[in-house]
Every structure is written in C-alpha cells, then in structure tokens.
Amino acid sequence: MNKPPRCKLFKLYSRRTQPRLCGMKKRYIPCASAAKKMTTQELRQSFLIDDLFENGRLNLYYTDCDRAVIGGAVPLETPLKLESADELRAQYFCERREFGALNIGGAGFINADGKKYALAKNETLYVGRGAKEIEFGSDFASAPARFYIVSYPAHAAYPVSRSGLGEGNILHLGSKSTCNERDINQVICEARIKSAQLVMGHTHLAEGSVWNTMPVHTHERRSEVYMYYDVPEGAFVFHFAGAPDETRHIIVSEGQVVISPSWSIHSGCGIANYSFCWAMGGENQRFDDMDGVKPEDLK
C-alpha cells in the first residue's frame, strides 16, 4: 500500500487538532514511525501546545496519549469553573478523573466542593476523583494566578491535598560543571500526595545551568507532559523529543507544553536557566521506572 504524501499527512494532523464546539481542543499523537518523517511544523502541530494561558479563560486540551487532559486557567475578577466536556462523557469533570494544578503566577485559590485552598506561586493542589464543584480564582486581577492543570483517568478516589512551598520531596541533582544543577520537587507521588495514577512535580534550574534530564530516558509504561515556565523574556528552550535513535527538537518558550509519549525522550536545553512542570500518567507511579539511554546511543 502506498504511503500518503507528506502534505496529506500534515492536513490529517491539522484537521484532527482543530477545536470543537465544546471548548476542549484535541491532540492526537502520531506513532514513532510517523514522527520520524514529520517537518518542524508537523511536529509542533502534533506535540506542542502554545496557547494554554489566556487572561480570563480556562483552556483545555484532550490527548489520546494515556487520555490526559492538559489545561491552563488565568482567572481575573471572576473565578473560572472547571466543567465537563463532550469528550469525557461525564456529568462533571472529576466524575472519573483526578488532576493536579500548579500555580505559576500571582496569588490565587482553588475552590473544591466549597472549601477554599490558597495557592502562591509554585504551590500545588491535588483534586481526586469525585470532586464536583471546582473553581479557579485570583487574589488580584492585576497580578492573576496562572494555574497549570494536568488530569488523568482515576480508578480510585483520594482526598484533596495541598502542597505548599518546600513541602515536596526535594532532590538536588546535577552540577555546575555539567550545566545541569537543579532542584526536583516531587509533589504528587508515592512519598507525598497519594493519587490513583498521576505523578507530578516541578524542577528549577540553578543560575548558569541550562540542561534538564540528561542523560535521557524513556518511559515504556507511562507518558509524560512538560510545561516550561520562568523562561526569561527573549529566551527559549530546545526541547528534545523522538525515539533515541531518531531525535527531534521543538523550540518552546514561556508557558508552552510538550506531550511526550512512552517511546519519546524528553529533555531540554535553554539559553538561560528556567523551570518546568512535569506530569506523568500510565501503568505505575514509580518515579525511577525509566529506561535509560546512554549518551553515545543518541542519534
């Protein structure tokens, strides 16, 4: 059977990522073989989300990659409600789902079933399956909160839990000599906040360091999502993706997201230090369940 020409492949992916009337956009992830043949524009159309954070809006993306939902909420004067969508076939968003929300902006709060949880920058709230009424709010519209949301299906219900600054499981990795000195904050994980399958945290690179997740790895049993933030104005990050023997890169900037399927590496190198939020969902929650790749095997 003849393969469709590249232009038809691109039209197919473009058509499948268009927003629907319900307000939830889509990202269908191509297989590793297809990704090897994609242009820069096609890679960005399939793996990158670059319009998540808009003032006064709550934007959601649904991906077939482990059925994750990725969202961004920037409330101003009025709180923003998290509601279900056609894709979920649910009466309310968390009927069969859980999510984590990281605030990367000004002071704000999340109302979960009538209880208010204050969240400063780099603080996280986990909301488990069964929570019905969810709202995102800002303390000051002039300096709004920016909530980054990652959701996966949940087979069990766990209580709402907040993680304040410094309350995660913090790992200090890397060194100045290899330009990858960084603090990893494990927040939603086996050792801290319990969840059905979501694993989530954030990493902060020290001044003078630019590399993250090097040496690289893949997750045969999980997908991962990276959201880059605190990227200095005018700076950017090269996000490296693809199969280890067929690597590709995507240039990302502030507040942009890359979806990483199980077969893809996920690593970044910026022109200045930055932070990023990582979130995983899949078969297990073991942070160290990864398949390492030797640097000399990268192509």
Summary tags:
seven-stranded mixed sheet, mainly beta, disordered N terminus, 299 residues, Jelly Rolls
What fraction of residues sit in β-strands?
A: 35-45%
What's the architecture of one domain in CATH terms? Sandwich
Roughly how many Å is the radius of gyration? 18 Å
Arithmetic mean pLDDT: 92
Largest sheet: 7 strands, mixed
Strand order of the largest sheet: 1-3-4-11-6-9-12
Q: SS-based structural class?
A: mainly beta
Poorly predicted parts:
3-22
Q: Can you identify the CATH superfamily of one domain?
A: Jelly Rolls
Straight-line N-to-C gap: 29 Å
Q: How many DSSP-defined strands?
A: 24
CATH class of one domain: Mainly Beta
Order of helices and strands: HEHHEEEEEEEEEEEEEEEEEEEEEEE
CATH fold description of one domain: Jelly Rolls
What is the molecular shape? globular
Count up the helices: 3
Helicity range = under 10%
Can you walk through the features of this model?
With 299 residues, the chain is mainly beta. It has a domain at 169-297: Sandwich (Jelly Rolls). The protein has helices at 6-16, 32-35, 40-47, and strands at 24-27, 48-49, 58-63, 69-73, 80-81, 97-103, 108-112, 115-119, 124-127, 134-138, 147-153, 161-163, 169-173, 182-188, 199-205, 211-212, 217-218, 222-229, 237-243, 246-252, 257-260, 267-270, 275-282, 291-292. The chain has a 7-stranded mixed β-sheet with strand order 1-3-4-11-6-9-12. It has a 7-stranded antiparallel β-sheet with strand order 2-21-18-23-15-14-13.
